[in-house]
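Sample intake — DUF1453 domain-containing protein
Collected from: Actinoallomurus liliacearum
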Amino acid sequence: MHELLNGLIVVAVVVFVIVRRFTARRVDESRFLVLPLIVAVIGLTRGNLLDTHHQMLSAGLLAGEVFAALLLGLGLGATMRVWRASDGSLWNRGTWATFGVFLASVTVRSGMAAAGYATGVRTGSGAILLSVAAWMLTQNAVLMWRARTLPARVSVNL
């Protein structure tokens, strides 16, 4: 039953992230760490990050997943559209390129899970959530950096 609940949590987080990335939303620096940290804490408290029978191999796979999530998060953050509205507020939305990087993220994660399964490594959803947290944190950091590099709104008084 726990694995079913864990699976539902993972699916809910992924759906939430997809909806948020592909709808226009205001950039809010004060909250860019909140969701990734919540997901990381849930992943860490769920446990099953490492397979007790294959600790070294599962630790290597987890490190590889987190590293891949960081790289793919860079790609997501770089492909999102970021703009300043007429009132000076910052906004972002995913593009088709973002969707392509998202699909690559799913493919890489699935491939790593398949490799682990083929070698007998059995980890729980905690490992998935930890890599999702790294993925979200990196894309949010890139978005914040890109938003800060946009020129300030210029007002022209005639």
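Post-analysis note: The radius of gyration is 18 Å.
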